[in-house]
């Protein structure tokens, strides 16, 4: 597999930044909409981690001499509408899991193709590990809620 070019690397980082900012918006909307206070608190905490990812990606882009991607209001509106505050907790958790799984794939593919940029690898690997932890927690909550709804 060929290593990412600088242009491809910047593109990957910009897309990751947009996705992380979108995740922050989604988790914020969901944490306000979820009725279960323990789940809402955990979702809020995940959103804080995603904000940290966005900051780390922004710093990495700046270190590469790039301007971080803008997150426009149109994208924010789409994210909020997809987040569906009217949806139930289970639906919100499923959407969050899908987004975490997409992030896992995105980060893993990028990591596999970066050969000689240790600083970027450090950022992406840390983000990947967090996304995997988030996905695992979300799966456990989904399973718990599904079992509870069947009883």
What key attributes describe this structure?
elongated; 82% helix; 151 residues
Based on the structure, what is the oligomeric state of the protein chains?
A: single chain
Low-confidence parts: none
Number of strands: 0
- What is the residue-mean pLDDT, rounded to a whole number? 91
Specify the structural class: mainly alpha
Query: Outline, from the CA principal axes?
Result: elongated
Portion in strands = under 5%
Describe what you observe in this structure:
The chain is an all-alpha fold and 151 residues long. The protein has a single domain, classed as Ferritin, core subunit, four-helix bundle (Ferritin), CATH 1.20.1260. The protein contains 5 helices and no strands. α1 runs antiparallel to α4 (89-113) and α2 (37-63) runs antiparallel to α5 (118-150). It is elongated, with a radius of gyration of 16 Å. The model has no long low-confidence stretch (mean pLDDT 91).
